[in-house]
Amino acid sequence: MTTTTPPRPQAPPPAPAPPPRPAMTANAVVSPVAAAIATIAAATALTGVIQGWGWLGYVVVATVLVTCTGMALRALRAHPFAVGAAQLLVLLFLVVGAFTRSGFLVIVPGPAALTELNDVLVAAFEEIRTGLPPVEGTTPIVCLVTIAIGLVAVVVDILAVTAAAPAATGLILLCVYAVPSALAGELLPWWTFALGAAAFAGLLAVDGSHRHRSWRNRGTPGLGASPGSVSAPVAVVAAALAAGLVAGTAVTGIGTEGSLPGSSSGSDDVPGGLGINPFTSLRGMLDEGTSVELFRVHGLGQDRRLLRAFTLDTYRPNEGWGLPEGPMPAGVPADGPLPAAPGDDGTGESRPIRIEPVNWVDLWLPVFGAPRSLHSISDGWYYDRTSGTVFRERRQRPGPYVEVASLEEPSRQELRASEPAADDVPPVYTEVEAVDPRVRDLAEELTADAPTTFDKAQAIWSHFTSPGNGFIYDTQTAPASDPDALADFVLNGKRGFCEQYASAMAVMLRSIGIPARVAVGFTTGYPSGDTRVITSQDAHAWVEVYFGDEGWVGFDPTPLSDGRGYVPEYLRAPQDSGNPGESPGEEVPTASSSVNAPSSPLPGAQSPSDTAQNRRPFYAAPSWSGWGALGAALVALLATAAVVLLGRRIATGRPGSGTTVPAWLVGAALGLWVLSLVFVAWQLHWAVALFVLIVVGGVMAPAAIREVVRMRRLQDITQGRASAADAAWQELLDEAADRGIEIPRSDTVRLAAQKVAQRHRLDEQGKNDLRTVVGVVERSWYSPPSSDSGARDQQELARAFHGLRDSLHRSAPLSWRGRLLPRSLFRRRSGR
């Protein structure tokens, strides 16, 4: 008899321990730190356009705050959207706390703080518009740089860490270099390129090292890492940078000088210096707190002529005078004899004048009177007879040059006898738009009794220079009291400096049909031995009027009495006595006091929100469109990063990632990019924005139509309508067609389904759902079901069809071409 031992009861298996919370890996620290270092290294390129180093401290603080915020929230496993939003919020707190005084608890922005911040940024953009690099590191400039580099730090952190795509940061960092390279007058320091290249290479190396550690246990050929594989990105980036610099030097010209860092650039390429912007607003010069020597002139003697840099022929209402849109005129080479200037018949004395630039760096080469020839200038300078200017395509410091000029001036009698014909000058010199009727009426009233063109011009000139009319030279314009800036200056304020006077007189002359333009240059300066010294405080604007055979004749309506003005003989009454270089007028502040010059091109102009914006045509870009473009692009970038991140999670099968990227997220990212592009195009011209909309609409129309058809069919299927089976089958055929598979009309339902399953490689779940769909479609077509079975079929159809679509997305994702140009829209539809 055998006995069996009963089995011992086994202890229940221990409950599985909860998975440990993942610790913060080294890569979670090293990658964001590398991204921050790359951002700061790229920011050093701004040394080429900003003076000093104080701004770099703010950049470092902003970058560190952004980086630490991202590291902290990722350690808490926060959603990527929350990380990006928190980084932007921290950057806003920093800017509000550092550059405003109205924030709640110092750093929290409120309406007052945002208004104050907007004023700071407007001042920064004005300094950029009127200044010349390298600009002073003022508070507005530092604020703008902090915001810009802070946003770059956010984007680089998102791309390098959240989206795990550090190579994509290269484009963003390259843009940081592109801005100062385009603005600086010389090549950026060599070390900033080396520092940026090393930091970017380190960022790639960190990512490559992390990927190697993650895959080192895999047996896939080519993934086994050797010690040199980690340093491969460094070598690749270094080689690419060297090749790019060499190729750029030989082909395109890196930076602004077309030479490698450290190479000899010649005498013409000297850093530093000042220039003048081609606008009636001279703030770029007048804001220089100290007088900077610009030119030394030999051979002028006691002649107190004005030195002309360039002329402006286009008036823009409520903005001022500027150059016309488009390229520079063709011109003729300026080295040697020049075409005769208008009014120069060659009979007057030719006087050689030696002009020695000291701190002058610009596109323009200033000249006196009517230039006849130029000597000792380098190649690349051109002379335009129509505008009377000597220019080149890129800013440069010229060496000393000699101008042979005619300084002869016509007499009062000759000017009265000269009447310009309507076709003597291009139409641009008589065109004027949107002149306030009150200004036009004043011009007609002043010239009603003037029989000749000269008498009319002199009458308007006398209106500004006569002390009894109340016009005063001042660096501060009167408070605005009229929405039209020009009318406010002429009729109410009567206070301003040279650009306001020149702008007003030129507009009034054109309003009564007299050709006029604004000349920009310098007053006579001060004598130093046998030399005249011209400084930055001598920057000036005046009016030139066309008199046919006498050419362009100068009228300076600014009532200067500080010894720097110039009144020619033809404007001086016979009883006038004293120094012919002094003009009549009241005692006014000298030009050296003009450190607080108003920023508006015309006096009395309020802020854009008060004047130009209120009078802006409906098709003009609103003032906030620039910020709108930046905001839309930033949000679009975040949405794009989210799409990329979700796509990676789906591709790797991570839990909780779903089966497809939400269509609304993709659509939102595309829509925001389009909105940003439209805003940017609107800044150029409304027609450009309209063209962009038409192009984008044409590109997106097929996808939009296909989506509307898809949504209508899915609604029929989900709601169990009578047409649900037909809708499901047609949608299935269209899904196959969009993926490049055409189902012939002659195929049966089962044969078509077999082709879909095989060619799209459906998984088992997808094949089961496809069988269900085929069964319901066949029963619907060939054996109409009862009400009970019909309701059950509709429920099964809805569930199975959605499962089938998910399987198609997993096994055969739709390409971008299939999304934008769905083939199902272009094939002929057939019945069942």
Oligomer kind: single chain
Q: How would you describe the shape?
A: elongated
Largest sheet: 7 strands, antiparallel
Give the termini separation. Answer: 77 Å
Portion of residues in beta strands equals 5-15%
The helix-and-strand class reads: alpha+beta
Poorly predicted runs: 14-24, 215-273, 281-288, 575-618, 828-832
Helix content: 40-55%
Rg measurement, Å: 36 Å
Mean pLDDT equals 75
Overall strand count? 20
- Widest beta sheet: strand line-up: 6-10-13-7-1-18-17
Q: What is the helix tally?
A: 23
Task: Summarize the entry for a quick read.
Residues 1-23, 320-348, 566-613 are annotated as: Disordered. The chain is α+β, with helices and mostly antiparallel strands.
